[in-house]
Write a structure and sequence with these properties.
CATH topology of the largest domain: GMP Synthetase, Chain A, domain 3
Shape: elongated
Bound molecules: zinc ion
Number of helices: 2
Strand content: 25-35%
CATH architecture of the largest domain: 2-Layer Sandwich
CATH class of the largest domain: Alpha Beta
Largest sheet: 7 strands, antiparallel
Structural class: mainly beta
Distance between the termini: 38 Å
């Protein structure tokens, strides 16, 4: 086993075999993929929200539970490892932290966090101590909020930070940048660097 995709509530969801396939652990949790908006089961090969039913916990049944994870089921494929369990693909991170492009593409938060590394690694912007939050509003526009530290960002820095997002987003996306005293969305204990209000799941629809 190379990797494990699991959670406290659903135990083992999928395990990665030596042939780099993630096989669902069908005897530990029953996994379904449903449409983000309608909640209906989607066809294999379609990306959606992962719903799991824990088959082991008899004391506290956890039935069709979701944690906001997105994935798609490939289906049953003959695999060299001998497993007959369905193969799941692209665990794309939590839907609630994904940005939705104007083309409908769901881009996970981790991709934007990788971009933020480039602000330092590629553009050599001395970002130490700088906190950021990338927020997508309901209409799809994106604002990068920067809580700057000791170093004052100049216009080139700001331009490079803004431009970096177009590596992931279509060129007609409205992106603006704001220097603020504190990040605008700060609920709960966990800092969330990327948030989308365009996202139906987050809006509770
Ligand atoms: Zn396999």
């Amino acid at each position: 086993m190379l990797d494990e995709f699991s959670s406290e509530e659903l135990t083992r969801i999928a395990l990665e075999c030596p042939y780099h396939h993630y096989h669902l652990e069908e005897d530990a949790a029953y996994t379904e993929i449903v449409d983000f908006e309608t909640g209906k089961i989607v066809k294999d090969g379609t990306q959606g929200l992962l719903i799991g039913t824990n088959l082991l916990n008899k004391a506290t049944p956890i039935i069709r539970y979701h944690q906001g994870d997105t994935a798609k089921i490939i289906g049953v494929e003959k695999c060299e490892c001998g497993s007959n369990f369905r193969i799941i693909d692209l665990v794309l991170g939590r839907y609630m932290d994904s940005i939705i492009s104007c083309d409908g593409e769901i881009i996970p938060a981790s991709c934007f966090m990788d971009l933020a590394y480039d602000w330092f690694l590629q553009f050599h912007i001395p970002i130490h101590g700088m906190q950021y939050q990338i927020v997508q509003s309901e209409d799809g526009d994106i604002t990068i909020f920067l809580v700057v530290g000791l170093y004052k960002l100049n216009d080139t820095d700001l331009c490079q930070i803004k431009q970096s997002l177009y590596k992931l987003l279509p060129s007609n996306t409205n992106i603006s940048i704001m220097e603020v005293e504190s990040i605008p969305v700060n609920k709960g204990i966990k800092y969330r660097p990327v948030i989308s209000f365009k996202n139906a799941y987050l809006n509770g629809k």
